From TrEMBL:
Residues 158-205 form the F-box domain. PANTHER family: DUF38 DOMAIN-CONTAINING PROTEIN-RELATED, UNCHARACTERIZED C.ELEGANS PROTEIN. This is F-box domain-containing protein. Transmembrane segments: none annotated. InterPro entries: DUF38/FTH_CAE_spp, F-box_dom, FB224, Mos1_HTH. CDD domains: F-box_CeFBXA-like (cd22150). The gene is fbxa-221.
Length: 475
């Protein structure tokens, strides 16, 4: 029982718990009801914190703290000589079944959820114990049996969750929330493989970093999972009103990207929507670069091009540490032809060279709809948007030349249907005659019909800095 009590003390030290907290919990839930004195607990915790994790150390070998009687000194000398010729075996938690069971017992008595307890055990002690064995001991202790030497073979064979038929496990996982699946996949490699195999049914994925560097979000088919950093490590939860569940010791950004990779690497995945967003008020340049670097690494390691119909990419993470706009390096990982809709961030003049690389890709040339949010520099030729069915742009530093380009799109493109072109800071009033030289003044509804060889368009000039274009189906 001494080994068991010391194992629990070491378990708490590895979990970075303090002396008083550890001692009070051990007094409440001592393995085998053994009474532990505070002085003993303080000695062992101090020894473990110094890096010596031997559970079998003989405390009597410690130097005398004060001058004692000759008999005590002779006993101490005899113990040391015996330890030289017959040294005690060094025992760590992972070397002793009793020690490992004591740690499980301690978590069960403290009612730590089994998945969280197993992850903690693997992180602090060893991952050599199979989940089914851990589950057996955990529930044995949880239901009141505290016998650490219990003979497992006397127990009738029981079916663990991971031993159920694969189809039954898959059906259970299909009916669970995304949060539950992200926790379950970390229990064992078998469950991880089963969860990842079922990712093919996902239709929408969004990864967000919205508030600060200590929080990330993954939204899968509208189901939110929030990852956030805590003193113990990364935790996940449904929303901020819940207590999180510990899933690992790493940073939340690393773990959310690892889960994102597990989803994206499924070869049968067909997404209607893929969205990666970082709010611009996250000020840390280092974090912005790290976010983009990890995402691009995830995409690069995928064995296939992503089958995505609609893509939304924020501009904040598309720049590398030299501030180069790397839209092309991200866009190249999506399947051409399948990608139909793009919503892309474009923020500054320095983005122009990177943008011009992207417009040569098949992914760009075969897409049908484009929306560029923030402001597109007016010096970018609008001929790059000639092949799209619908275009939504906010043009910064716009000029008459841009209006001429819009007119040319209408004339030359057989595909174009809808357009919204917002100019800033200029007004487009007075430019109506570029579409109709014979027009003296705008009609009261601020609309004109514009006929090309492909179709008739309605052009709306109702707003001072915006042109709306759509087909006239009645013409």
């Amino acid at each position: 029982m001494k080994i068991a009590s010391r194992a629990v003390l070491l378990y708490q030290v590895l979990d970075k718990k303090g002396v008083l907290e550890t001692f009070s919990e051990l007094k409440l839930h001592s393995p085998g009801n053994e009474i532990v004195r505070f002085s003993d607990a303080e000695f062992w915790i101090s020894r473990f914190e110094s890096g010596n994790h031997d559970l079998n150390y003989d405390k009597r070998l410690e130097p005398l703290s004060a001058i004692r009687s000759p008999i005590q000194m002779l006993r101490k000398t005899a113990l040391r000589l015996r330890n030289v010729f017959r040294p005690r075996k060094v025992i760590h938690i992972s070397d002793s079944q009793v020690a490992m069971r004591a740690c499980i017992l301690f978590d069960a008595l403290n009612e730590i959820p089994i998945f969280e307890s197993y992850r903690k055990f693997c992180r602090l002690v060893s991952n050599s114990m199979e989940y089914r064995d851990y589950e057996f001991w955990y529930y044995l202790f949880y239901h009141g049996n505290k016998e650490l030497h219990y003979v497992q073979s006397e127990e009738p064979p029981q079916t663990s969750f991971v031993d159920l038929p694969i189809q039954i496990v898959s059906d259970i996982l299909d009916g669970s929330t995304v949060l539950d699946r992200m926790i379950v996949r970390r229990v064992s490699r078998k469950l991880e493989a089963l969860v990842d195999k079922n990712h093919h049914s996902i239709k929408s994925v969004a990864a967000h970093s919205l508030h600060d560097e200590s929080e990330c979000k993954l939204v899968i088919d509208g189901d939110l999972v929030e990852y956030y950093n805590s003193p113990e490590g990364c935790k996940i939860r449904k929303d901020c009103r819940m207590d999180g569940i510990l899933i690992g010791s790493g940073d939340c950004l690393e773990l959310v990207m690892a889960d994102l990779k597990a989803i994206l690497q499924n070869p049968k995945l067909k997404l209607r929507m893929f969205n990666v967003n970082m709010r611009c008020y996250i000020k840390s340049e280092e974090y912005r670069v790290e976010y983009g670097t990890i995402l691009k690494k995830v995409l690069k390691l995928l064995p296939h091009l992503l089958n995505v119909k609609k893509l939304k990419l924020d501009s904040n993470f598309l720049r590398d540490k030299e501030n180069n706009y790397e839209l092309a390096s991200v866009l190249s990982h999506f399947k051409p032809g399948t990608l139909e809709h793009m919503i892309l961030g474009f923020h500054r003049e320095s983005d122009i060279p990177g943008f011009e690389k992207a417009v040569r890709l098949k992914q760009w040339l075969q897409a049908k709809n484009i929306k560029m949010y923030w402001k597109v520099d007016g010096r970018i030729p609008l001929e790059h948007f000639l092949h799209f069915t619908s275009v939504n742009l906010e043009i910064w530093n716009g000029s008459r030349r841009n209006v001429i380009d819009i007119r040319n799109i209408l004339i030359e493109s057989p595909h174009f249907r809808y357009g919204r072109f917002k100019f800033s800071p200029i007004t487009i009033r007075g430019l109506e005659q570029m579409f109709d030289p014979n027009l003296d003044r705008l009609p009261l509804d601020c609309r004109i019909n514009y006929r090309t060889r492909h179709r008739v368009f309605v052009i709306n000039f109702a707003y001072h800095s915006e042109i709306l274009i759509f087909p006239n189906f009645t013409a």
